[in-house]
Amino acid sequence: MKHLAPQRRARARTLLTAGLVTSLALMAGCAKSEDDSGGDKDASRSAESGQVVASPSGGSGPTCGIDAYGGKKLDLKSATVGFSQSEKEANPFRIAETASLKAEAGKRGVKLLTANAQSQFSKQISDVQDLIAKGADLLVIAPLNSDGWEPVLRSAAAKHIPIVTVDRKINATACKDYVSFIGSDFVEQGRRAADRMIEATGGKGEIAILLGAAGNNVTTERTKGFEDRVKEKAPGLKIVFRQTGDFAREKGQSVTENLIQSKPGIKGIYAENDEMGLGAVNALKGAGKKPGDVKIVTIDGTRNAVQGIVDGWIDGVIESNPRFGPLAFQTLNSFTQGQKVAQDIVIQDSAYTKDNAKADLGKAY
Amino acid sequence: MTDLSLTRAGVDRDRVLRLLQEYGVYAGVVVLLLFNFAFTAHFASAENFRTQAVQVAPVLIVALGMALAIGTEGVDLSVGSVMALATSLLSLYLGYGPWLAVVVAVVGGIVVGLANGALVAFVGVQPIVATLALMVGARGLALVLLPQLKDVRDPGLASLGSGDALGIPYLVLIAATLALLVAFVVRRTAFGRQLLAVGDSRPAARLAGLPVRRVLIVVYVCSGALAAIAGVLATARLTASDPTSLGSLMELSAITAVVVGGTPLSGGRVRIGGTVAGAVLIQLLTTTLIKHDLPPSWTQIAQAVVIVGAVYAARERGKR
């Protein structure tokens, strides 16, 4: 009896472990997901639109040259470039951004080292230090935060490593701590979304804003641009509802469900990213509304949102172009050859409306 | 004379406190409802109650499992990640048809529950640590299986998320059925008694010859399965699988619902009715603040106040 109990326990334990392992193996083994429209997606994806610079390069803005920054000329082809991504490659923007840099590096035959900070700032700092230690001659950084970069900048400056930041800025001195910032103007995106909204609603009525995550510069800037433009151009358009959807579809849906019940007369919804806008579409469908009853304007330009325009649910999508690869490498190339490059390179984002959504669906990411 | 009245006042105070502990959560729900009827436009409509019920359903289902875990003096932090895992599996297996995909998703939840239970019952790891490990692990696995949001186009699942029977949404029917089932199990079955005994005192339960390990494993398996069901329902409602954000912070919402509902963290007692009311209370609170367009940060502060109030009540109960 005494002998048996531990034996039985051991057997139970083995059974459990075996069960766990086999079920895990099964899970991964024979998955079969819904119709994968992958083939056609990849085909059209090759028609990707690179970025176009909006601000006059070289001309009026402050520029940066290799003499001012320190360091020496080198040939990009034989150099190693390190890329530090900020967030998990789980949303279309980050996926497209990393893919674009990898594709451009491959095209130019440059050796690219990549790291992903998984949305943890401390990891991003050590990621960049690792990249430097692994011998990166040039750095492209998609910063998670704007502040807290001193230790990295110091070690990069000691080795005269040129840094280009993409999509978000860091709080440091351009041409001393880093070479250039390449990114979108989020305030301008907000303004353009407001223009779209004014056009769609005729400049009158009550509208709502689905805010992004709190304490994020993207949220504050997209809100500021939108509100300022509405105030200035369409005083008849009243913003009666501002709630956060945390940039997530589910939250956008549940907030919109409450919105359309407490304010049935709402005419438009401005979602600060596509996902929340798609959540709003879900909510409107659930409430029995028809496409076009409530005008929706979103920002980003993901494939699903552009498809939403084609289906008539979404009125306009302001693009935030994630394809930084060509422009980042072009900037690094000119800089390392001794040419002057602009310190702030603001890219030109396009927009999707009813007129071009169908034709440009392939450009969406 | 003065002495007498003093003691009576003391007794009354005790009674009021006890009543507050027992029924405070229901009173809170009633107060919020009355407030909304009076001050919120378009609140008293069938459409609105339908929305609120649909929104609360996934949280409620997760909270039921959480109540069981807390009843054994444990906690299950992995529920949010299990929802994410369920949504990933659902999306991956939808090619075989919705039924099989749902079964696979729930099996995934059960497997995580088994791992939780085994760690707690056999290895003797503290529940908070064991389920923390699975919380990190299951979310990671979910993201490996499905790295980004994927739309769900299956009409069966879509009707599960937005359809209804006799005017009551499927989501609400499922949540209500599960709540009744769990309440029945806790109150009327031998397993329910064993669960409470284990929660009261594990050594005493072992000495009394109860199958402590089996009870613990079954409890975590139930919690995992319920969380997976909630994940499936949330996916059906969203008509998309989003393992990055689905179920994030769900464990906190569920714990809040359970604790606010009057289930003590020290185990040995499970209040299913209170848990349901707790989930409804949090939902109404959030809705009230959203409908009145108060800044989002207020919602968090209001939730904090409710939690502190509930914990205060729990402290008094502990003293008794």
Automatic annotation (TrEMBL), chain A:
Region: Disordered; residue ranges are: 32-61
- Where would you find this protein in the cell? Cell envelope
- Which CDD domains does the UniProt record give? PBP1_galactofuranose_YtfQ-like (cd06309)
Q: Which residues form the signal peptide?
A: 1-28
Short name of any one Pfam family annotated for the protein: Peripla_BP_4
Basic and acidic residues composition-biased segments: 32-45
User: InterPro entries, alphabetically?
Assistant: Peripla_BP_I, SBP_2_dom
Identify the species of origin: Streptomyces pyxinicus
Q: Does the keyword ATP-binding apply?
A: no
Keywords attached to this Swiss-Prot or TrEMBL record, sorted alphabetically, are: Signal
Spell out the family assignment given in the record's similarity comment: Belongs to the bacterial solute-binding protein 2 family.
The segment(s) forming the Periplasmic binding protein domain are 90-338
What protein name applies here? Answer: ABC transporter substrate-binding protein
Q: Which Gene3D superfamilies match?
A: 3.40.50.2300
UniProtKB/TrEMBL annotation, chain B:
Q: Where in the cell is it found?
A: Cell membrane
Q: Which residues cross the membrane?
A: 23-46, 52-70, 100-121, 128-146, 166-186, 215-234, 296-314
Q: Keywords in alphabetical order, please.
A: Cell membrane, Membrane, Transmembrane, Transmembrane helix
Primary location class? membrane
- Please indicate which superkingdom the organism of origin belongs to: Bacteria
Q: Does the keyword Repressor apply?
A: no
Short name of one Pfam family: BPD_transp_2
Q: What is this protein called?
A: ABC transporter permease
